[in-house]
Design goal:
The chain is mostly helical. It is built from 16 helices and no strands.
Length: 484
């Protein structure tokens, strides 16, 4: 007899495992890129294709994930995505040339593009609105813990074993998630989502993929270079065409009409700006530690890791204390204000400052980001119809992915425009480029705090059960969907 496991536990375990694996893959591979380049006898420009191909592939296949999950059921689609991602990881570790590695990274992106939206939709369909703050704490673990752990684990694997192990490390995680999911996830098929929106898939996939490629390449080639500018222009044109097509399609792949929902629109605005500030700052911190302060990749990863500890503690406080009492508006605004202050203080450190100050600020950044991601994800879907959850999850994750890429590109550009290419400052050079980048990231967080003020707590009331026992009020009544 197969033991019974609550679907809340089953979905949470599988989702955390696969998201941790997918998100960590980005930062852990970045640590290995110089070694991969030396092994395959290619320069930094060519080896960047290992990262860019994965990000572009994610952008292309994320839009289709919501429809696939609704059409075939979350369980088979999620398990298929795990198989594709895990097998592709093994193939990446076995690659014998840069071309093979890039091709296998594209395949990895196919699986990775389906993991987050399908898993998130399953999670929010499993947890009722009043319990989504708990679900959001589950979501926060992989999305903020994995980027900090990746450089530490990547440095250890590259130094002690081989760059191939940054891909092989996915195998046990993927295999465990696959077996657990096969045994304990329930198969549920949502209402038929209609025909596959081929024009929407082509336009959104090529549009997002082109924009992602251009954003990723522009800092390295320069914002005046023809290739990235042309690619971005084509991508923007395709996305504009997608908007016209999708608004006229009865059942679109990208449900742009959801942005008419006031709460969902504000949550996406917060998510894109928060991701830009947070993921961009993590990237700059790595450069600051290694190129500005002369640390090794492993030392840099260990000095970034306090951010993950801050997230773990902050998520518990957000779930159990702050969100039910503050509501999303004040909670998210305060979190982003704290992020802005902590990142801004990184800009005042000099070469003689103790690294423990930087590590303490990383802890504060992680703690405050938990106060952003937990309430934002809890509130975002509060007024979304269950039938639209899959498409809403697709859009939410596409925005998060695009925000992270834009954040890295913007802050890299700030470093370049401040007088140095990435890595040019060196331990004896000026820290000004990193300071400028930190201030830009702080500005993005402040802008996110302003957007958070547009959230209305009443719209998310059904996600805020009362914590006062014995007063006869079990929980606040859910509000109607807020649509402008």
């Amino acid at each position: 007899m197969r033991p019974q496991v609550s679907q809340k536990i089953a979905v949470s375990v599988v989702f955390v495992a696969v998201m941790f694996m997918s998100i960590m893959d980005v930062t852990i591979v970045n640590v290995a890129l110089p070694t991969i380049g030396r092994d395959f006898h290619v320069g930094p420009t060519e080896v960047d294709a290992v990262s860019i191909s994965f990000l572009v592939s994610l952008a292309v296949f994320i839009p289709a994930s919501g429809w696939l999950g609704d059409r075939f059921g979350g369980k088979p689609v999620l398990l298929t995505a795990i198989v594709v991602f895990t097998v592709a990881s093994a193939l990446c570790g076995l690659a014998q040339s840069l071309g093979e590695l890039v091709a296998f990274r594209v395949l990895q992106g196919v699986g990775g593009g389906m993991l987050a939206p399908v898993g998130m939709a399953m999670l929010f369909r499993t947890f009722p609105p009043a319990e989504r703050i708990r679900a959001s704490a589950v979501l926060t673990v992989p999305t903020t813990f994995a980027p900090a752990l990746g450089p530490v684990l990547g440095g250890l694997l590259v130094d002690k074993l081989s760059w191939r192990w940054v891909f092989f490390v996915n195998l046990p995680i993927g295999a465990a998630a696959l077996v657990f999911g096969f045994l304990f996830l329930e198969h549920r098929v949502e209402a038929m989502p209609g025909r596959f929106d081929l024009p929407g898939f082509v336009l959104s996939g090529l549009g997002f993929g082109s924009v992602m490629y251009g954003i990723s390449e522009a800092p390295a080639q320069g914002w005046r270079a023809v290739a990235p500018l042309t690619t971005m222009a084509v991508g923007v044109a395709l996305l504009v065409a997608m908007v016209f097509v999708e608004l006229r399609t009865p059942q679109p792949m990208i449900a742009l009409r959801l942005l008419g929902n006031r709460l969902f629109r504000s949550a996406n605005g917060v998510m894109v700006l928060g991701s830009m500030a947070f993921l961009g700052a993590l990237y700059v911190v790595s450069l600051y530690y290694q190129d500005g302060r002369g640390l090794t990749p492993l030392q840099s990863g260990l000095s970034t890791f306090p951010e993950a500890l801050g997230v773990m503690l902050g998520a518990q406080l957000a779930t159990r204390v702050l969100y039910p009492r503050l509501g999303p508006r004040r909670h998210v605004s305060a979190g982003l204000l704290g992020v802005a202050v902590a990142i801004g203080l990184l800009a005042v450190l000099d070469r003689g400052s103790s690294l423990w100050w930087a590590r303490a600020l990383m802890f504060v950044i992680g703690f405050c980001m938990a106060q952003v991601f937990v309430p934002t994800q809890a509130a975002a879907f509060a007024t979304i119809d269950p039938a639209e959850t899959g498409r809403a999850s697709t859009m939410f994750n596409a925005v998060r992915q695009l925000g992270g890429a834009i954040g890295v590109a913007v802050l890299t550009t700030a470093i370049v425009l401040s007088g140095h290419g990435a890595g040019a400052a060196g331990p004896a050079g000026s820290l000004t480029p990193y300071r400028v980048a930190f201030l830009v990231a702080a500005g993005l967080a402040l802008l996110g705090a302003v957007v958070a003020l547009s959230v209305r707590d009443a719209d998310a009331a059904n996600t805020m059960p009362s914590r006062r026992a014995g007063n006869g009020e079990a929980q606040r009544q859910p509000s109607l969907a807020a649509v402008d």
